[in-house]
Design goal:
The complex is a heterodimer of chains A (524) and B (500). By secondary structure, chain A is of the alpha/beta class. Chain A has a single domain (61-102, 118-496), classed as Rossmann fold. In chain A, 27% of the residues lie in helices and 24% in strands. Chain A has helices at residues 9-27, 73-84, 131-140, 161-172, 213-216, 339-349, 371-387, 414-428, 436-442, 445-451, 464-491; strands at 32-34, 37-39, 91-96, 121-122, 145-151, 178-181, 193-204, 224-238, 250-256, 261-267, 271-277, 283-289, 295-302, 308-315, 319-325, 353-357, 392-396, 402-405, 408-411, 432-434. In chain A, the strands form five sheets. A six-stranded mixed sheet of chain A has the order 4-20-17-16-5-15, sandwiched between helices. In chain A, strand 1 and strand 2 form a beta hairpin. In chain A, helix 2 (73-84) packs parallel to helix 7 (371-387), helix 3 crosses helix 11 and helix 4 (161-172) packs parallel to helix 11 (464-491). Chain B folds into two domains: 21-203, no CATH class; 209-296 and 379-488, no CATH class. Helices cover 72% and strands 0% of the residues of chain B. Chain B is mainly alpha-helical. Chain B contains 21 helices and no strands. In chain B, helix 14 packs antiparallel against helix 15 (350-372). Classes of the chains: A alpha/beta (524), B mainly alpha (500). Chains A and B meet through helix 1 and strand 18 of A and helix 1, helix 2, helix 10 and helix 21 of B.
Chain lengths: 524, 500
């Protein structure tokens, strides 16, 4: 038998009790910063007691490099006017291969949605190019309806837009994946189109300082310029990752060839045609139409000097949704694009709606004042209207996000504030607004997204599964208004906009009170 | 912020109730409080074996209830079933009855395991073979730790059948063995013949060496599990495996190396804590991990990795299949079957089968190598330095390749990871990646450095902690828990992109 003094059976309890005592005492040490290192409260009692460690509300606005957002709108307008007047739609060649000439069939809204809808707030009801015009276009136009979604890494790889597109195309017709860049390191990640490119050097707009001087002024909102060597090629192939992607009947390839060049286009790996291109400083397109395009290949045979490849749009008559995502972009990248190039491509595509999805990288924990960022959003909307005239503009509110606390993950407190500032910005410039975070809360919030495998473990970025949920929620919101437009058009009565103070009070089809709205972002 | 008494009471009640989403784990604050309370009475009962056994059983059952709810009854059922079967085996005087009874025990245990763990796997297999909808998936709860306690229980009846153990006289002793909370949910798989002799020691003796070693193992376990493993998985490894195409080949390779460290730290860290806690209660468990990535051959790896499982598989499966007694081909076949089933034990999915298959194949090839190459050695300690280093490198990378199968959700992820590594390695981004993920790579480097630290240094640190005054041990533990809490509440590493 061991001697009493050697038996540590009781010491275990003494040690554990002492440990608990020390840790409970440590719990009362508030968070602090020591030598630049943030020390958090180590609250062993966090399951039972909370300490209010919310940082004091700072009156300071969010810190970001505002210089990056500098843009002279007058100059933008003058540049577009100078470069695109008289307006030229530079379709260089139209290659028709047994095209089906039937016009787009009449479409009807989807009436089956039973989910709770987070409505689109229409602050653009007085504008002729507002959402109402877009709804009418979707219902009535017998031509492709085009939507551009400009965003950041949240939608990278066609996340969210893949499902928005799928639902819109299923309901209102159309097919194809929309815009796909000529070459980028990210093409492999995108599952809605298979891109194989060779011989291109790609430059990203966020790294514009590393981009050759001659190319810096040639960026489009896609964020990529691609420079070929002789023989450089790209092949886009439709996939079946989402429905309707392979129902593609039109391919448009966009490029800039200031000098004469020869290019080759191959359709479905079987029909090949070579084109001689005369030099021109404007962006041009080759449009190919065929009953079904499964793959489209493009090759620069000769004349690579100054040649820039942008990408291709794969579409059909119906709704086309183009994903223009740029990592780490808070919207400032659009000001680094060439507005004339944006306008030239828009002249060929004629966008009906531009959706802006930004703000995720601007949010900071403990910062609730985003006045200065709201001002940048207003500039973005103005810029978009200059470059994409006639398109309605929808600002997507920032998405939900969680941060770590001593008790686990909690919703980021800044999200409702950023949403409120984005809403304010949208209303100031008469654009539409959709609160993405509200839609995500409807679906359970970011915590639920991560637990369900719909979002990454950074509690910030969604994946394709998460994109499916949000994309469908956005479709429901759009579809609901298109349905209302259709219904009211049928009854020939006035179609009232949705305003935020009435969102949850009245059904959408009821006449709404057009009372003045007081938006206070500091009280979201 | 101070709360009302009823709010606190409600929160405590919620905390103590069964919650499948938050099982009671050793690295949680709740466990610390419960264990402190438990220790007080445990110490008080150290001279009354029966009362102590009942007390520990009740705590263990609560521990299990907290993770698996009503399924703690399954544990009681398994204990009753094998206790009775074992007694039957001992009393039976005919060999066929003894064999029938041990088969019954194996059938009951594997039946439970099969039903709870593999039903949906078999449904999936059926649907793949005969078309979707052939069988319907079932909504079956997987009781925590069932794979461990079922194996433990089988070791008891098989040992009695083999005449290596006498059956216990008291059912509560057997229930104590099967439900003992330190090893209940994640091992190590403690053999009945190692554990049972310790149950009724009177009084319970915890020597200074046991106490110090227990503290040391809990400290290292916490560091491995709650600091290294949790940090690198959340901030790097998981995201690489989720979307390999968003990362360069270098990041994908680091993701695999990171996962190799993560799974080792996670598993061995929890084992260390279990062994440490058992030591504080006066029980000695066998070592479960012995720096496995120091292995210079795959055979050595399996002598160092999850030792309690590999020795269990060897003694109760490989030897039962005939081991190496039935010729060379049959030996390789037995190895393959053992490892494939060992893989399946880790989880009900094809990727685990594949993982087991890779190890089975590697073990068989190594056995062949040993038999045809003169001078080939089974372990690094017998090799010359150069061969040993080459062996460690090769073995580590082979094991990492198998971890890729183990971790990837699908074969597509495996293909994508390999594609990135071999066709988009992108070496120029290495400095950027290391700078962008400084903390992650610092932890990975620290983890591997500690892993490869020579045994004598490891022993010196262990002895320093073991012999330190208790006050210092408490402060060390407090510092470790504080660090864990800092890590747990630290900001998540944002996504960093290096591809352009």
């Amino acid at each position: 038998m061991a001697k009493k003094s050697e038996n540590y059976t009781f010491n275990g309890w003494i040690a554990a009790a002492a440990l608990v005592g020390v840790l409970v005492a440590v719990s009362f040490i508030p968070p602090r910063t020591l030598g630049g290192v943030k020390i958090r409260r180590a609250n062993i009692l966090s399951d039972i007691f909370d300490f209010d460690d919310t940082p004091a509300r700072s009156p300071e606005s969010a810190v970001f490099n505002e210089e990056e957002f500098q843009v002279d709108m007058t100059e933008v307008a003058e540049r577009i006017d100078a470069d695109t007047l008289p307006p030229r739609v530079q379709t260089l060649f139209e290659w028709e291969i047994g095209r089906d000439t039937t016009l787009r069939a009449e479409v009807l809204p989807d009436t089956a949605c039973t989910r709770r809808i987070v409505a689109i707030e229409e602050y653009d009801s007085l504008r002729p190019d507002g959402m109402r015009a877009f709804y009418d276009t979707v219902l009535l136009a017998r031509r492709p309806v085009r939507i551009a979604v400009l965003g950041d890494s949240f939608i990278e790889g066609d996340i969210l837009t893949a499902d928005l597109r799928e639902r819109l195309q299923e309901t209102y017709g159309g097919g194809g994946t929309g815009f796909a860049p000529m070459a980028s390191p990210l093409t492999a990640f995108r599952r809605t189109v298979k891109t194989v490119s060779k011989g291109w050097t790609s430059y990203n707009i966020m790294q514009r300082k590393k981009t050759p001087q001659t190319l810096r002024d040639k960026f489009y909102v896609s964020g990529w310029v691609c420079q070929p060597v002789e023989g450089a090629s790209t092949r886009w192939e439709t996939t079946a990752y989402r429905r309707k992607l392979d129902e593609c009947s039109c391919g448009r390839i966009f490029f800039l060839s200031p000098d004469s060049s020869r290019i080759e286009v191959t359709v479905n790996d079987s029909l090949r045609r070579e084109f001689s291109v005369e030099g021109d400083p404007s962006v041009r397109q080759i449009a190919v139409r065929a009953p079904r395009i499964g793959s489209l290949a493009f090759r620069v045979v000769s004349g690579t000097r100054g040649f820039i490849g942008y990408g291709a749009v794969l579409e059909s008559d119906g709704v086309s949704v183009d994903n223009y995502s740029i990592r780490s972009n808070n919207g400032q990248a659009m000001f680094w694009t060439n507005p004339s190039i944006d306008a030239q491509i828009d002249a060929m595509l004629d966008y009906d709606l531009v959706i802006l999805q930004y703000g995720l990288n601007i949010m900071q924990n403990g910062v609730y004042n985003y006045t200065n960022y709201a001002a940048q959003i207003e500039k973005m909307v103005t810029f978009v209207r200059e470059c994409f005239p006639g398109a309605a503009v929808l600002v997507m509110g920032v998405s939900d996000r969680s941060v770590r606390t001593d008790a686990g993950f909690a919703p980021m407190a800044a999200v409702p504030y950023m949403t409120a500032y984005q809403r304010l910005a949208a209303s100031n410039v008469q654009a539409a607004f959709w609160p993405t975070a509200d839609a995500m809360h409807n679906l359970g919030g970011m915590g639920h997204f991560v637990r369900s495998g719909w979002a990454g473990k950074d509690f910030t970025h969604i994946n394709y599964s998460g994109g499916r949920r949000i994309g469908r929620a956005l479709f429901d919101a759009l579809n609901d208004r298109i349905r209302a437009a259709h219904e009211l058009r049928r009854r020939r009565v006035c179609f009232d906009p949705v305003l935020p103070d009435s969102l949850h009070l009245k059904p959408l089809r009821d006449p709404l009170i057009l009372a003045p709205i007081h938006l206070n972002p500091m009280m979201p | 912020m101070m709360l009302a008494a009823d709010t606190i009471t409600a929160r405590i009640a919620g905390l103590l109730a069964y919650d499948a989403s938050s099982p009671l784990i050793f690295s949680s604050g709740l466990f610390l409080f419960l264990f402190t309370g438990f220790l007080l009475f445990y110490a008080a009962l150290h001279r009354t074996p029966t009362a102590r056994i009942v007390y520990v059983i009740l705590f263990s059952l609560y521990f299990y209830y907290k993770s698996s709810g009503i399924y703690f009854l399954l544990l009681i059922f398994a204990a009753a079933s094998d206790y009775l079967i074992a007694r039957g085996i001992c009393r039976a005087d005919r060999r066929w009855i003894r064999r029938l009874l041990v088969l019954l025990s194996v059938a009951v245990n594997l039946g439970m395991l099969g039903y709870f763990k593999y039903t949906n796997f078999l449904v999936d297999m059926g649907n793949r073979l005969f078309g979707q909808g052939f069988l319907e998936f079932q909504n079956i709860f997987l009781p925590v730790g069932i794979s461990f306690f079922v194996f433990q229980s089988m070791s008891y009846t098989i040992d009695i059948y083999r005449g290596q153990l006498r059956p216990l006289d008291r059912w509560i002793d057997y229930l104590f063995y099967l439900s003992f909370f330190p090893q209940l949910v994640a091992g190590p798989i403690v053999r009945a013949r190692d554990f049972i002799p310790q149950i009724r020691s009177n009084p319970v003796v915890v020597t200074r060496e046991m106490f110090g070693t227990g503290v040391f193992l809990i400290l290292t376990g916490l560091f491995k599990k709650a600091v290294i493993s949790d940090f690198i998985s959340l901030n790097f490894v998981d995201r690489v495996f989720d979307e390999p195409l968003l990362y360069t080949g270098f990041e994908c390779l680091m993701g695999i190396y990171g996962y190799a460290l993560q799974i080792y730290c996670d598993f061995s860290g929890y084992s260390d804590m279990a062994i440490g806690i058992a030591l504080l209660l006066g029980f000695r468990f066998p070592k479960n991990f012995d720096a496995p990535y120091k292995s210079a051959t795959i055979t050595e790896f399996w002598r160092r990795w999850h030792i309690s499982l590999s020795s269990w598989l060897r003694d109760y499966l490989y030897i039962s299949l005939g081991g190496n007694r039935k010729g060379r081909v049959r030996t390789y076949f037995n190895l393959m079957v053992t490892m494939v089933l060992g893989g399946l034990w880790h989880g009900a999915a094809l990727r685990f089968v594949l993982w087991g298959g890779i190890h089975g194949m590697a073990l068989a090839l190594h056995k062949l190598w040993l038999s045809v190459v003169p001078g080939a050695k089974a372990a690094g300690s017998e090799m010359k330095r150069g061969w040993r280093i080459a062996g460690i490198f090769l073995t580590f990378n082979l094991v990492c390749f198998s971890w890729l199968m183990f971790r990837a959700e699908s074969m597509q992820t495996v293909t994508l990871m390999l594609h990135q590594i071999f066709f988009d390695f992108n070496a120029p981004v290495i400095p950027q990646v290391l700078t962008g993920y400084t903390a992650v790579f610092a932890f990975i480097a620290a983890g591997y450095a500690l892993h490869f630290v020579p045994a004598r240094i490891d022993e010196r640190i262990r002895s320093g902690v073991t012999q330190a005054p208790m006050a210092l041990q408490v402060l060390l533990m407090a510092a470790m828990i504080w660090s864990v809490m800092q890590i747990k509440s630290s900001d998540i590493q944002p996504f960093i992109y290096f591809q352009f």
